[in-house]
Design brief:
Layout (H helix, E strand, L loop, with lengths): L2 H20 L1 H6 L5 E3 L4 E3 L1 H9 L8 E4 L5 E3 L5 H13 L4 H9 L3 H17 L5 H16 L7 H12 L2 H42 L7 H12 L2 H42 L7 H12 L2 H31 L11 H12 L3 H4 L4 H28 L8 H13 L3 H4 L3
Antiparallel strand pairs: 1-2, 1-3, 3-4
Helix pairs in contact: 1-3, 1-5, 1-6, 4-6, 7-9, 8-9, 9-11, 10-11, 11-13, 12-13, 13-14, 14-16, 16-17
Length: 417
């Protein structure tokens, strides 16, 4: 047999022997399939495994042992003590590997038991790792890396060194420490995740309070990050949301300052237009300013501006009505209607609004008002004189009445008769 083939068989025997001795009854009865072939995803007996490897259908690295707990472990994970025991057995029994393999395949219980005894002796002399020990160690290493640990971390490197020493106690001790370190990492991660979630939720609440929406991309990104439960992603998305919130707040503060400035200008204009602080429209804006709600302030400001314009229009209308009247020197009783409209419009203004009418127009209106009173009195006398009838039986009385009315006029009024 070629050396290469012999080496392959030796490797097979050395890899399987411990497992085979564990399942000796199965080898004889072939009623159990304690191995799993990763190449074809099938459970196999020891004999099927050996035959398949010899036929080059798969390699020894594809084969796993199924433990009593249902867990799988690679059968190639054997210790130096176990390998030495097999070599010692071959030497002491003057047996070559082909013979040993044939006996194992044929289920020779005596050979298996003798070899198992040799292994027990060697392992007693030199404690060796079992498949389970190494499996636990490798599982611990994988868990540590998954939890965020690094291969360069001292606790991880210590287990690597222990595995190389092939000392069970060292491996188990280092494994325990790595498991403890993994638990600490996981606890730290859980704490970090809880803290990140708390900060994220606070940031989301602040964003919405600042006027943001749940449909905004920056908000949706944090929701997605929370679903991933990745601390770094959550923290990064939270930072962006906080930044967006600050931008919203800054924009709101700017908008509020601008709204307040316009509101104060509108309030001043309203008072200048003759409005009062007790007027409902003015009080509404004052209340809106206290709320510091931009939209409320803008709405109330617009209403106050509208009220101010209405007041300004009223005053402007009074000025125009007065200016449309003839001067006091030439006005006659025929302008009584026009004068009445101007007078009524002026009188309808509040005292504060009347103060805003042009002074010259107020002076003109007052002068015309006085003249109109004179013209009204004179008009009565004129009518009494015009209606005198010398043929009337009351002529004398009517003349006396007209004389009395005339005499009651002032000197300036008499001039107008």
């Amino acid at each position: 047999m070629k050396n290469k083939t012999k080496k392959s068989i030796i490797s097979l025997v050395l890899s399987f022997l411990l497992v085979l001795t564990t399942f000796a009854p199965a080898l004889a009865a072939e009623s159990s399939k304690p191995f799993f072939n990763a190449a074809n995803k099938q459970e196999m007996t020891a004999d099927e495994v050996i035959q398949g490897i010899r036929a080059n259908k798969f390699t020894v690295d594809d084969i796993y042992k199924i433990g009593n707990d249902g867990k799988y472990a690679k059968v190639t994970d054997l210790s130096a003590a176990q390998n030495n025991a097999i070599k010692e057995y071959l030497k002491n029994n003057d047996m070559d590997i082909d013979t040993l393999l044939e006996k194992i395949i044929n289920g020779n219980v005596d050979v298996i038991n003798d070899l198992a005894s040799e292994i027990d002796t060697k392992q007693a002399e030199c404690p060796a790792k079992t498949i389970e020990d190494l499996t636990n160690a490798k599982a611990a290493m994988a868990a540590y890396l998954k939890a965020g640990g690094k291969e360069t971390d001292p606790v991880y490197a210590a287990l690597v060194e222990a595995i190389e020493s092939k000392n069970v106690e060292s491996i188990n001790a280092a494994t325990a420490k790595l498991v403890e370190a993994t638990e600490a990492l996981i606890a730290a991660q859980e704490s970090a995740l809880a803290e990140a979630i708390e900060k994220a939720e606070a940031a989301m609440s602040a964003y919405l309070n600042a006027g943001g929406k749940t449909t905004d991309p920056v908000y949706a990104a944090l929701v997605e990050a929370l679903e991933s439960k990745n601390v770094e992603n959550i923290n990064a998305a939270t930072a962006k949301l906080v930044e967006a919130t600050e931008a919203l707040i800054a924009a709101q503060e700017s908008a509020l300052a601008e709204a307040i400035e316009k509101a104060e200008a509108a309030m001043s204009a309203y008072l200048n237009a003759g409005g009062k602080e007790t007027d409902p429209v003015y009080a509404a804006l004052a209340e809106a300013l206290e709320s510091k709600n931009v939209e409320s302030i803008k709405t109330a400001t617009a209403k106050l501006v509208e009220a101010t314009e209405a007041k300004a229009n009223k005053i402007d209308n009074v000025n125009k009505l007065i200016e449309a009247l003839p001067s006091v020197e030439v006005i006659t009783i025929e302008y009584a209607d026009e004068f009445g409209k101007a007078r009524d419009a002026y009188d309808a203004l509040s005292p504060e609004e009347q103060q805003l009418v042009k002074p010259e127009n107020v002076e003109k209106l007052n002068a015309i008002s006085e003249k109109m009173r004179d013209l009204d009195a004179v008009q009565v006398v004129i009518i009494m004189i015009d209606e005198l009838d010398d043929t009337s039986e009351t002529f004398s009385a009517d003349v006396a009445a007209a004389r009395a009315a005339y005499d009651a006029l002032t000197e300036s009024q008499k001039v107008l008769v």
